Amino acid sequence: MFIHRLPSFVPAILPNLIWEKKADATENKVYFTFDDGPSPEITNFVLEELDKFQAKATFFCIGKNMRSFPDLAQTVQLAGHSLGNHTMNHVNAWKVSHEAYLANKMACDEVFSEMGIPSIGFRPPYGRVNRALINQVSEVGPIYMWTLLTGDYNSSLSHVSITKNCLKNIQAGSIIVFHDSQKAYPHLKIILPEFLAYCRDNGFQLSAL
């Protein structure tokens, strides 16, 4: 069974990570985030869909993709969306040394600096971190996790099950993860318009982190 929403004890034992934005509950804001881009065609599709609903979002970008598609990264920023660090090569914190992971994260920071794009913070690939990384990375900026994981990259899920299990759990302050990647696109092209319409119809304001 795919877990779209983590049990409440997980955020409770990792309070230094940002799982939702409770302060915005009274403003009815929801936060769509997109990991693993930028990716031609797919990121452009996302931008077009967001624009249809006058929605803003956050893109957690892989450094090597920003280097490969710098104009696309700039387009995301110019459209009024925010961008964040998702490491240089989508590295898994549980499979490399602490030093190697930090170096990969910092390499992505350098790409942001070179391109003159501010990073709003960091999201670890796969959501995998450890105490040492949390302590060190959080000293220089926020670490964003999520309230809801759509699982758009998972081919064993159906788009019907994704919408059924996620839409009912959207609340003010929710941070929702999508992916602007080739792997996720078969689901994303169907579910993103549905999520956008649901939020519009239920009075949620879609904002960038």
UniProtKB/TrEMBL annotation:
Coiled coil ranges: none
All residue ranges annotated as the NodB homology domain in the record: 28-207
Organism per entry: Aquirufa ecclesiirivi
Protein name: Polysaccharide deacetylase family protein
Top-level taxonomic group: Bacteria
Keywords: Hydrolase, Metal-binding
Keyword Hydrolase: yes
